[in-house]
Every structure is written in structure tokens, then in C-alpha cells.
């Protein structure tokens, strides 16, 4: 079982999303349920991002299930749009070992949600002198 991420960095108000791809190798003819992973980082689930694709997901851990003949499974993290100026935030997913599968290759990946909001206090404001119609 291994894990990859693409892209590794996304804007909080845009697309694409962070897509974590879980890969299993060997005999994939049978189902494989409850592949466990941990979730950590500075981003907060349901506040900074939402997820799709996991069988269960709590913000601190999750599971995925593989169907028969399924070699890959994805968990997509979609950043939540906001207008707060904040630091970039991270999300790390790490595979957890289990008796039902072996870990190999890359077993963790960290994605970054880049802040794309600006502080309006720093915005340039044009002032116009009404008597002469010139910007000052």
C-alpha cells in the first residue's frame, strides 16, 4: 500500500483540489476494507476543507475501502473559501499499518492550502482632488 499526492499545493479559493491517491499492489481480486490513515496538520476539517472519497473521515483519521479488482482509491480535499488573511495551512495524510495489507513506497504526503486573501488595509486608495480632477 502506498500513497501519492497531486498537486501538493492549492489556493484556498480555487481549484484544483488536493488529491491523495492510495495504491495497492499484488492480487487485487478481492475487496480490501478499512485501510486506515491518520490526518494531521494546521488545516481544520470542515473549517478549512471538506473531503470526499473516504469511507470514514474525522479530521484526525479515516479509512478507505477497495472494491474487487480496484488498484487505486482517491481521497479529495477541497479547500473552503473564506476572506480571512491567514497563514498557509497544511494537511498530512499518513497510512497506518494493519494485518490486512503491507505498507511500501511512500506512506505519507503533505499538501498545502495557500492563503489567497489580501489585507484590505494595505490596499492602495486613489484620492481625487475635486477642484482640479487630478489623482493625488
Task: Walk me through this protein's architecture.
- The protein is mostly beta strands.
- The protein has a single domain (2-135), classed as CalX-beta domain (Immunoglobulin-like, Sandwich).
- The protein has strands at residues 2-6, 9-11, 18-23, 32-40, 49-52, 56-57, 61-66, 72-79, 89-95, 108-114, 128-129, 134-135.
- The strands form three sheets. It has a six-stranded mixed β-sheet with strand order 2-10-9-4-7-6, with no helix packed on it. A four-stranded antiparallel β-sheet has the order 1-3-8-5, with no helix packed on it. Strands 11-12 form a two-stranded antiparallel sheet.
- Strand 11 and strand 12 form a beta hairpin.
- It is elongated, with a radius of gyration of 21 Å.
- The mean pLDDT is 89.
Average pLDDT reading: 89
Rg computed from alpha carbons, rounded to a whole number of angstroms: 21 Å
Q: In the CATH classification, which architecture applies?
A: Sandwich
Spatial strand sequence of the major β-sheet = 2-10-9-4-7-6
Largest sheet: 6 strands, mixed
Shape: elongated
Question: How do the SSEs run, as a string of H and E?
Answer: EEEEEEEEEEEE
- For the record, the count of structural domains works out to 1
Strand proportion, as a percent range, falls in 35-45%
Q: Can you count the helices?
A: 0
Can you describe this structure in just a few lines?
The protein is an all-beta fold and 136 residues long.
Give me the secondary-structure topology.
Elements lengths: L1 E5 L2 E3 L6 E6 L8 E9 L8 E4 L3 E2 L3 E6 L5 E8 L9 E7 L12 E7 L13 E2 L4 E2 L1
Parallel strand pairs: 2-10
Antiparallel strand pairs: 1-3, 3-8, 4-7, 4-9, 5-8, 6-7, 9-10, 11-12
Amino acid at each position: 500500500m502506498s500513497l501519492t499526492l497531486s498537486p501538493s499545493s492549492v489556493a484556498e479559493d480555487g481549484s484544483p483540489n488536493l488529491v491523495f491517491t492510495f495504491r495497492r499492489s499484488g492480487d487485487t481480486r478481492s475487496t480490501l476494507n478499512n485501510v486506515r490513515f491518520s490526518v494531521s496538520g494546521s488545516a481544520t476539517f470542515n473549517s478549512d476543507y471538506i473531503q470526499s472519497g473516504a469511507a470514514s473521515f474525522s479530521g484526525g483519521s479515516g479509512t478507505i475501502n477497495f472494491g474487487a479488482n480496484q488498484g487505486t482509491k482517491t481521497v479529495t480535499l477541497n479547500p473552503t473559501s473564506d476572506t480571512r488573511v491567514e497563514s498557509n495551512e497544511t494537511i498530512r495524510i499518513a497510512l497506518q499499518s494493519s494485518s490486512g495489507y503491507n505498507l511500501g513506497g511512500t506512506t505519507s504526503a503533505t499538501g498545502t492550502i495557500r492563503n489567497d486573501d489580501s489585507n484590505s488595509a494595505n490596499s492602495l486608495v486613489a484620492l481625487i482632488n475635486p477642484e482640479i480632477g487630478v489623482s493625488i
